[in-house]
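Run folding on both entries below.
>entry_1
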Amino acid sequence: MKNIKWILFIAKRFGSVDAKGKAAWAGLLSVLGIAFGTAALIVILSVMNGLQGGNIDSIMEVSSSHIRVTGSPEDLEKIEKLDGVKSLYVFTENQALMAGRDGRQSSVLIRAVPPDLLSKDTGLASKLEISNGSFDLSSPDSIILGYELADKLRTTVGRKVSLLAVSGSKTSDIFPGNAEFNVAGIFYTGYYDIDSSFAFVSSSAGEKIFGSGKKDGKFLAAVKLVNPDKDIQFILEARTVAPDAGIESWRSYNRAFFGALKVEKNALLLLSALIFIVVTVNIYNSMRRSIYEHREDICVLSAAGAKPGEIRGVFIVNGLGTGFAGAVLGVLCGLCISVRIKDVFAGVEHFVTSVGIFIASFAGQENPPDFKLFDPRYFYIDQITARIFFHEVLFVFVFGVFSAAAAAYFAGRKVTALKPGEILRYE
C-alpha cells in the first residue's frame, strides 16, 4: 500500500512538470489522439448498428420472419401455444413474372397471406409503410406491391398488373389465364431487395393461382416471437412438442447476408483501430522522452531503493491518466455525435451546399447542384440512424485507456537500462 502511495505521488509530480513546455503539447496531442480514436470508433459502431439493424429488422419482420415452420396443422397448433409466440400464420410464396404498364415486366416474389395479416402481425405492420393506397386484401383480385417494384412496372394504385408465368405446384398452371390483379396499395420498407421484388395477395388468390401450398400434408407458417433473440431456445422447445416439423431460425435463413454484414463491420473496426496504433506509437515516444528528461530523478529514486518495476509503475500511471482523460473525452464526443447524427449530416450537407453556391456565384451558374451525402440516385437510404450498445461503448473506453497504458509500459522498460552511477557522477 505504501508503495502505491509514493508511486502515485511521484507520478503526480512528474505529471505537473510535464504539463509545461514542449512536453505539455505532446501530452495534449496524446489525449486528443485517444479522444479522436475513441469517438470515431463509437460513431462508426453506432451508425453501422443503425444501418444493419434497420436491414435486419426489415428482413426478420417482412421477409424471413423470426421462425419458419413446415408442419401439419396439428404441429402448427402445438407450436402456436408455446410461450413466447406473438403470432403464427400460414402463407405461401412463389416466383412469378409480372407485367405492368406499357408491357414492362419484372420477376416478383408473391406471398399469399391472410387478409387480416397486419392485425395479426404488428411487427410486420410497423415495417410496412404504405406510401400509397392501403393494405386491403379483402378482394380476391387485390395485390400490394413494393415501392421499387411498382416503379419498375410503371404502375400505380388503381391500375392492373398481370401474371405472365408462375412457379407453383402440380395443381397450378405455369401460364395462368386471366391472372390480373388490381393494385390496392404500395408499401415501402427501406430495404431495396424487399421493395423491388415483393408483392402480397390474399390466401384465396394465392391458392387459386399457385395451389394450396400443401406439401406432403404440411404447410409453411411464419412465427413471430416476443423476443427474437430467444429463437434458439424456442426451436428446442418447439422440437420437443412437434418433432416431425421442419423449423428454421432467421439466423440460418439469412446466414450469408448477416455474415457479409459482420465482415463489413469488422473491416471498418480494423481500419478505425489503426488510429489507436498511431496514437499508441505517439504516446510511446512521448513517454521515452519523459524518461530521458527525468533520468536524474529516476536514478535518485533507484539509489534510494526503488525497484525498476516500481519506477515503471510511475510512468504506467501517467499513461493510464492520459488514456483515461482521452477515453472519457472521446466517449462523450462520440455519444453526442451518434445521438445527433442526423443533424451532423444535415450540417455537413448545408455547409458543402453553401460553399458550392458561393463558388457558383463566381462561376456564373444560376442553379448550383444541391449536395447530398446520400444521394437517393445512388443510395437506397432515406435516413441515418444510430444504435448505441453499452457493451460496445465500454469496450472502446477500456481499449482507449489500456492502449495508452500499454505504450507507457513498453516505454518504461528503458528504465532498467539507466545506470545511476554513470548519470549521477557529475551531479
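>entry_2
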Amino acid sequence: MSVTATELKNNLGKYLLLSATEDIFITKNGKIVAKLTNPYQDRVETAKSLFGILPANADMDETRKDRLGAK
C-alpha cells in the first residue's frame, strides 16, 4: 500500500495497525521516501516455512556433532 506523508500524518494509528499485515510505502511529492513495516514479519514467515522440514526425531546435539565432524 502506498500513502502520502500527509495522509500518514493525519491517520497514523490506522496505518500502524495496517503495517502489522502489509508494508506501507510513504510518498512525498510522488516519490517513495520511507517504508512502514512489521519488524517481526520476516522472522515469522521464515519460521512458518520451516515447519515440517525437520524430522520428528531430530537431535540438536547429534546435528552439531555431524556438522563439526566430531564423533
